[in-house]
Amino acid sequence: MPRRQNLKAALIKAHCEERGATLVEFAISIVLFMMLIVGIAWFAIAMYTYHYVSYSAQQAARYAVVRGAHWKSNCTSGSEFACTATNTSVQDYLRGIAPPLINPSLITVTTTWPGTTPSGSTTGCSPANKSGCLVEVTVSYPFSMHVPLAPSTTLQLSANSEMVIQQ
After folding, report:
1. For position 137, what pLDDT does the model report?
2. Taking the chain, what is the end-to-end CA distance rounded to the nearest angstrom?
3. List of long-range contacts for 81-84, beta carbons under 8 Å, 24+ apart
4. What is the pLDDT of residues 95-110, one digit of tens each?
5. Taking residues 134-138, what's their average pLDDT?
6. How many folded domains does the chain comprise?
7. β-bridge mates for residue 135, sequence order
8. pTM for the complete prediction?
9. Are residues 92 and 78 in contact, defined by beta-carbon separation less than 8 angstroms?
10. pLDDT at 130 over 90
């Protein structure tokens, strides 16, 4: 009989010693789970930002193709219509349409008029922003990712668009 009491006492003692282990395991698990959830959220925001960068490159090219050499004066802002596009006016236009979570001051736009047609010919492309010639737009945006307990990372998101000037 004493042997049975010793076994019972040993089981109770072992059970009491493991009581705090569940709390420690839960704490570790919840931290890892929350890191995973926050990481997924940051990844979604990064995809949202890349979608905007890609979309804005297309919109900037559209802005430039309808504002070719046909117009007599240069655009001084992104909201003008009857004017010739410049790199500054294209950048102003994109900064004006930036959605939430995008810092407009960090958007970098490079607009070039290579002076060639879609076939690669330079004939008829003087000036370079003449109707029928190409316009190329590159948009870049530095995306800062801050995941708890992980080092901060900055990704340079970039997209290009090329279109033929219409006017």
Report:
1. 95
2. 102
3. 84/129
4. 999 998 899 999 999 9
5. 94
6. 1
7. 163
8. 0.76
9. yes
10. no
Dihedral of alpha carbons 73, 64, 156, 98, sign: positive
Long-range CB contacts (< 8 A, 24+ apart) of 30-38? 31/149, 34/148, 35/147, 35/148, 35/149, 35/150, 38/147, 38/148
Return the residue matching tokens 């029928």.
132
pLDDT digits (tens, 9 = 90+) for 29-80: 999 998 889 889 989 999 999 999 999 999 999 998 888 887 778 877 666 7
Full residue range of the structural domain in which residue 117 is found: 2-164
Q: Which residues contact 120 (CB under 8 A, 6 or more apart)?
A: none
Burial of 139 (0-12, 13-18, 19+ CB in 10 A): buried
Q: For the packed helices 19-65 and 2-17, what is the interaxial angle rounded to 10 degrees?
A: 30
- Render the chain in DSSP notation, one character per residue: -HHHHHHHHHHHHHHHHTHHHHHHHHHHHHHHHHHHHHHHHHHHHHHHHHHHHHHHHHHHHHHHHTSSTTSSSB-SSTT--SSB--HHHHHHHHHHT--TT--GGG-EEEEE--S--TTS--TT-SSTTSTTSEEEEEEEEEEEE--TTS--EEEEEEEEEEEE---
Contact 74, 83 (CB under 8 A): yes
